[in-house]
Amino acid sequence: MSERGVEEIRAEIAAERDGLGQDLDALKADLRSLIPFAVAGVAVQMVLGFALALLTTKVARGRLVYRTVFILPILVPGIVIGAIWKLMYNFDFGVLNQVLGLFGVRPIDWLGSTATALAAVIAVDVWHWTPFVFLLMLAGLESLPQDVYEAARVDGATFLQELRYVTLPLMLPTIVVTMLFRILVGVKVFDEIYLLTGGGPGTATEVVSYTIFRRFFTEGQTGYGSAMSVVVLFAIAFVFIAARGLTERRRASA
Questions:
Q1: Distance of CA 110 to the CA centre of its chain
Q2: Is the pLDDT of residue 118 over 60?
Q3: Which CATH number is associated with domain 28-253?
Q4: What is the mean pLDDT of residues 198-209?
């Protein structure tokens, strides 16, 4: 082989290494956005959804009204949610900055700053999906046996003791299933990112699903996008199977 051919091969290998390095950097950026989105967002949704469901079960009058109000966000189409919150986050005339202005706080570029963009998108996701958690938690709470609570009250248990020793253990299967479902949906989030930030500023809010979309439809890298889709599919399936196995093992040991 000629010296020129060797140089061409070395150049191709170097180009492949550079491309692999860029892909790894993009994956790291995606995970830096995706992990806080899936973990922090789902954690807030679980706490809020459970708290709202618990409060609703304690309300004697107007329960139907509260249920209707709490589930309204999940009934709104995604494109409408994006438009509404983009206006609310607007730097010049958004309602959030207008409220801050009343207290003498300078306006914040919610979606244009790397410091606030991801948190702003997480807040929209929490607002959108907390009603889903609320519905599942409410169904679980209303299906719990009441004789257990009556026995706890006879023994003099307080509200916090009922919550810790009765409600949470009985609700554990519902909590696990709801949390697992929300994590899986959170991992493949796309609409909030696409509608609010487009992955920006820079790569501050870019997640795996948006990267796949960009590879497919913007850069025309169909093969690369397909490979990423398959990897994400197997990763989600692995997480689901592992979580299900842990749940079954815990149930068997109990």
A1: 18
A2: yes
A3: 1.10.3720.10
A4: 87
